[in-house]
Amino acid sequence: MLLIISGPSGVGKTTITRAIERAVVGSVFSVSVTTRQKTVDDAEGVDYRFVTDEQFEQMVANDELLEHADVFGKKYGTPRDLVEEHLSEGRLVILEIDVNGAEQVKAKMPDAFGLFIEPPSEDVLLDRLRARNREDEDSIQKRFAEAKREISVAKSGDVYSAFIVNKNLEAAINETLRLIRQARAALHANS
Ligand code: 5GP
């Protein structure tokens, strides 16, 4: 099954995604390519493959990306080959991508299962963005505004089957796992 996990930055979706990867045997996290700067928290080839604008454009031209989008002025995309290979092996393939990319994937692969992670409130989200200590206040405010926009776009579309409020991390992980198991069982029952 192809799983799409989206949610605004600072909502805890990377932590949830990595927990799912550990909990579901045989699941794989799809490592995206991006033109954004690598930070000290990023491991090359594990969190992202960091590429130049030219390399990214070449991948788009070669139709190597399943989807791609601009997020905060940088390019992000999902390499198609590994996703297809792992799906054909019957694995759970996890895409952690934005709303725009999720719409593209869902249009191509309607069986993809979309989950959106939400903050308990706007105030909590703003606090979490500040606590990451990754950006200056101006960037934090931009991410905050973008987060509010993403949540409203996600709620008005039909890409996501469920919205999970990350108030308590353990509860959010358990709820995500429950929904994934339910969706996989439904897919098997229909196949
Ligand atoms: P960050 O730079 O904070 O790791 O990620 C910024 C945003 O880009 C997040 O919302 C993340 O989900 C999204 N993102 C990461 N990889 C991809 C991708 O391959 N495609 C798309 N469309 N969005 C991505």
CATH topology: Rossmann fold
Which radius of gyration do the C-alpha atoms yield? 16 Å
Q: Quote the beta fraction.
A: 15-25%
Q: Overall mean pLDDT score? A: 95
Order of helices and strands: EHEEEHEEHEHEHHEH
Beta-strand segment tally? 9
Major beta sheet, strand line-up: 2-7-1-8-9
Unreliable stretches (pLDDT < 50, length at least 5) are none
CATH class: Alpha Beta
What is the end-to-end distance? 12 Å
Superfamily at the CATH H level? P-loop containing nucleotide triphosphate hydrolases
- Helix fraction by DSSP (H/I, runs of at least 4): 40-55%
- From the coordinates shown, what is the CATH architecture? 3-Layer(aba) Sandwich
What features would you describe in this structure?
With about 190 residues, this protein is of the alpha/beta class. It has one domain (about 1-190): 3-Layer(aba) Sandwich (Rossmann fold), CATH 3.40.50.300. It is about 50% helix and about 20% strand. It has seven helices and nine strands, in the order βαβββαββαβαβααβα. It has helices at about 15-25, 55-60, 80-90, 100-110, 120-130, 135-155, 170-190, and strands at about 1-5, 30, 30-35, 50, 65-70, 75-80, 95, 115-120, 160-165. The strands form two sheets. A five-stranded parallel β-sheet has the order 2-7-1-8-9, with helices on both faces. Strands 4-3-6-5 form a four-stranded mixed β-sheet. β5 and β6 (about 75-80) form a beta hairpin. The model has no long low-confidence stretch (mean pLDDT about 95). Guanosine-5'-monophosphate (5GP) binds near residues 9, 32, 69, 71 and 78.
